[in-house]
Amino acid sequence: MKTAAQQPFDVKLMNVIATVLFTLCVLLLLAAAGWWAVRHPLFAIAGIRVQGDVAHNNAVTLRANVAPRLAGNFFTLNLAAAREAFEAVPWVRRAVVRREFPNRLRVQLQEHRAVALWGADGDTRLVNNFGEVFEANPGDIESDDLPRLSGPQEQSAQVLAMYTALTPLFDALDLGVERLSLTARGSWQLQLDTGGVIELGRGANEEVIARTQRFLQTLTQVTSRYSRQPDALVSADLRHADGYALRLRGVGTTGADAAKR
To answer: Fewer CB within 10 Å: N-end or C-end of the chain?
Structure first.
């Protein structure tokens, strides 16, 4: 059986050189094509299509404000930076940015839905339905009767959860929760739309809610003893181990007239 004759060394060398040159040519062509694509005006971002929530941001002005902050073309644009630019706009909670060939962007927006004011009086921060604190112009809020919540900002979701749990309990007595605050030491205080202030005390959410339920279950009975309705409540202190103390509008707070349970 005959074996194939080996190619001379110079032939092998020429084949290797030809292969290398061919590969270099292909790479140069690809680089040239890439450079052409990067530089060609056809791929410059020519439009931004905005979808989703635009209740607080007009799509036209949104594009006009964000477009100058976008650097690059269809291929070189940093999508993460573009997303951050849109999310820096007031009321925008989240933005998803995608490319649309050959020169457009599609942006899906989710806006904050304000459910409460946050902080002390005069503070312009708001709380969304996820319990997140955000900056915006309160003048853009459709509703003018939002409650005011306050506490350590990292616990804003807990404060909103407590407000959500307590509100139906007071609604049953036609009392509205206007303010709810959590101190740095973990103590809760609530203010009604009638002006009444209730010290709820400290403890886990379940404990505070249960304590409030017991208080409200007897409030109507106690106020009726003094010919009053629950909206006559001026203040209540639920931090007592064996009951609570309260003050009623128009009822004395000393002697036999003390409203204490």
So the answer is: N
What residue spans of 6-155 are helical by DSSP H?
Answer: 9-39, 59-66, 79-87
Determine which of 54-58, 201-205, 252-256 has the lowest per-residue pLDDT on average: 252-256
Q: Given pLDDT bands bounded at 50, 70 and 90, which one contains residue 256?
A: very low
Return residue ranges of the chain for CATH 3.40.50.11690.
114-257
* CA torsion, ordered 127, 133, 134, 139, to nearest 10 deg: 30
Q: Model-level pTM?
A: 0.80
Find all residues with CB under 8 Å of 107, minimum gap 6, and list them: 48, 49, 50, 51, 52, 86, 95, 96, 97, 98
One of 3.20.20.150, 3.10.20.310, 3.20.20.80, 3.40.1440.60 is the CATH number of 43-111, namely 3.10.20.310
Report d(CA 89, CA 86) in Å as an integer. Answer: 6
Residues 116 and 100: beta-carbon distance below 8 Å: no
Residue 156 near residue 170 (C-beta atoms within 8 A)? no
185 pLDDT higher than 70: yes
Burial of 225 (0-12, 13-18, 19+ CB in 10 A): exposed
The CATH superfamily of 114-257 is Cell division protein FtsQ/DivIB (3.40.50.11690)
CB 134 within 8 A of CB 112: yes
